[in-house]
Write a structure and sequence with these properties.
- The protein has 148 residues and is an all-alpha fold.
- The chain has one domain.
- Helix 2 runs antiparallel to helix 3.
- The termini are far apart.
């Protein structure tokens, strides 16, 4: 019995190190949390009101605030090249661009393609996630020394 608890501990330690060591994995983890936050906020606002753009915008702002702190202190933690004020400004520029791109995509999907608003929101989140990672990793939260 004692041997099995040692094996379980080894598996746990491996899983924990895998989940916390790589920036890409931490970004996915915090991104999934952000997606849940944004999507649930969107649904909670959209269902009772039916206001597509307001719901999308409000949920995006709610999620962006949390995303900044998650990215700064979790996803891209370490010896970052830029100071906090630079990161806030750069992240605000990225968030603003994503805000307009996301709303434009949602409008396109809903009004031109005929996709349901709830699915349109998920598509917009997914389409902006990749370039957000690249800009966050290599520009906004860039580390002073490359991490091997």
């Amino acid at each position: 019995m004692k041997g099995s608890s040692v094996e379980i501990r080894k598996i746990w330690d491996w899983g924990w190190s895998f989940a916390t060591e790589r920036r890409e994995i931490r970004y996915i983890e915090s991104g999934l949390l952000g997606v849940v936050d944004e999507y649930v906020s969107f649904l909670l606002i959209f269902w009772p009101t039916g206001w597509l753009y307001f719901s999308s915008s409000a949920s995006y702002v709610i999620s962006a605030i949390g995303a900044f702190f998650l990215h700064k202190y979790w996803s891209f933690k370490g010896d970052q090249k830029h100071k906090g004020s630079h990161q806030v400004m750069a992240f605000m520029i990225l968030a603003t661009a994503n805000f307009f791109i996301s709303n434009a995509l949602i409008g396109l999907f809903v009004y031109k393609v005929g996709v349901r608003p709830s699915y349109s929101k998920l598509l917009a989140i997914g389409l902006t996630a990749v370039w957000s990672f690249l800009l966050s990793n290599y520009v906004i939260f860039r580390h002073k020394k490359p991490i091997a």
